[in-house]
Amino acid sequence: MKKLAFVFPGQGSQAVGMGKDLYHHYDLVKQMFEQANTALGYDLTSIMFEGPSEELTKTENTQPALLLLSAAITELLKQEQISAHITAGHSLGEYSALVASEAISYIDAVQLVHKRGKLMDNAYPEGKGSMAAVLGLKQEELETALEEIRKEYNQVIEIANLNCPGQIVISGTKEAIDIALKSLKEAGAKRVLPLSVSGPFHSSLMKPAAEEFQKEVDKVEWNDAIIPLYANVTAKTVSSKEEIKSLLVEQLYSPVRFEEITEQILAEKVDAIVEIGNGKVLSGLVKKVDRRAPVFNIQDTDSLKVFTDWVKEEAIC
């Protein structure tokens, strides 16, 4: 049996048409999508397949859409007796990892992240918060530059995602991000790219959402994870349901430590890291940590077949 790590993408990986191919090929996927529609009380599937893009990119729709597709693909793999040795996810993707680890049902997770999306959007005034990707600065250099912005302008600006070498995402007030777009280039950044997001996610400005989200987390039935997963907040494995719940709340206002998670997974000598869900964002980040890393992406019937054939061929060998 191959030693596999399943990793799951987060917000930003969505695209109109996601999951449509699998929906029409597999009755299981169709059933899961329809059950999610019922649980949410609206037709998420139509938004995923037909858009418009503006509707899909609303946080309250993006989050359940990405989770639903990842959960459906994971279930298809389970039918092929293919499971993970370890799991992880990027921000929202951590919930897909928890579904794969059987810490939460996919229906509960779909409903929970829908509520999470609403809380995140409502946590800070629309248009007042922002995020940006910083390329070409080391973490220490970036921290120094952000501290200067905080002191001089009395604005909130913090590291949100540590994605891979040379790529860090920052989050904060729109005023602070606008200042950073110029000042960080002067500090040596190769590029500073504003992100199309609706709020200052993974910053202390999300703490009001975290307080409300704790109540929603406590309503859900949780189990200890049967497959350990690397937590975004600590970059360490977790399986206890109480620790999982606590870290999910903290995750809203804490940096995502995906580079460290990738390094930890690679240190486990896995046979492959498998990105499960729409897009190939995480596959690219993994390759930037180690270009020789064995990576697969599964988002449609073709990529599913390529991966399952590889697993079966390896098993025969």
From TrEMBL:
Residue limits of the Malonyl-CoA:ACP transacylase (MAT) domain? 7-314
Q: Which UniProt keywords apply?
A: Acyltransferase, Coiled coil, Transferase
Question: Top EC class per UniProt?
Answer: transferase
A GO CC term assigned to this protein in UniProt = cytosol
The EC number(s) this enzyme carries: 2.3.1.39
Cited InterPro entries: Ac_transferase_dom_sf, Acyl_transferase_dom, Acyl_Trfase/lysoPLipase, Mal-CoA-ACP_Trans/PKS_FabD, Malonyl_CoA-ACP_transAc, Malonyl_CoA-ACP_transAc_FabD, Malonyl_transacylase_ACP-bd
The lineage's top-level taxon is Bacteria
Q: Which residues form a coiled coil?
A: 132-159
* Active site positions: S91, H202
* One of the Pfam families matching this protein, by short name: Acyl_transf_1
Q: Name one GO molecular function term.
A: [acyl-carrier-protein] S-malonyltransferase activity
According to UniProt, the reaction catalysed is: holo-[ACP] + malonyl-CoA = malonyl-[ACP] + CoA
Biological processes annotated in GO: fatty acid biosynthetic process
Which family is it part of?
Belongs to the fabD family.
| Protein name, as recorded | Malonyl CoA-acyl carrier protein transacylase
